[in-house]
Amino acid sequence: MPENALVTLRYGPYESCGTVEHRTFRLQGLRAALTLHGHQCVLEETLEWNEVELLVHGQVVFKCCIKELEFGGDGKLDPLCKQAVTAVDDAY
Fold first, then answer.
1. 18 part of a folded domain
2. Could you tell me which of 19, 37, 48, 81 has the fewest CB atoms within 10 Å of its CB?
3. Which domain holds residue 21?
């Protein structure tokens, strides 16, 4: 995948502290890891609970549960962030 690829990051609501909302705190590391590799991220909310999907050219290249991503951080130590970056890099 060439640098500066546009990656759509779809994320659904999840339950935390007794409420169900769309939150981006768990996406910070994933966004940082993708940006570090030269990709641009666009956030898009979806109604699917607990779900994160990465789309490149309209195709889903990576999918995981948002609760499995580390809270905050830069994504360097999160194995799911590494898998997601690899999936985006291998999208072509």
1. yes
2. 19
3. 6-82
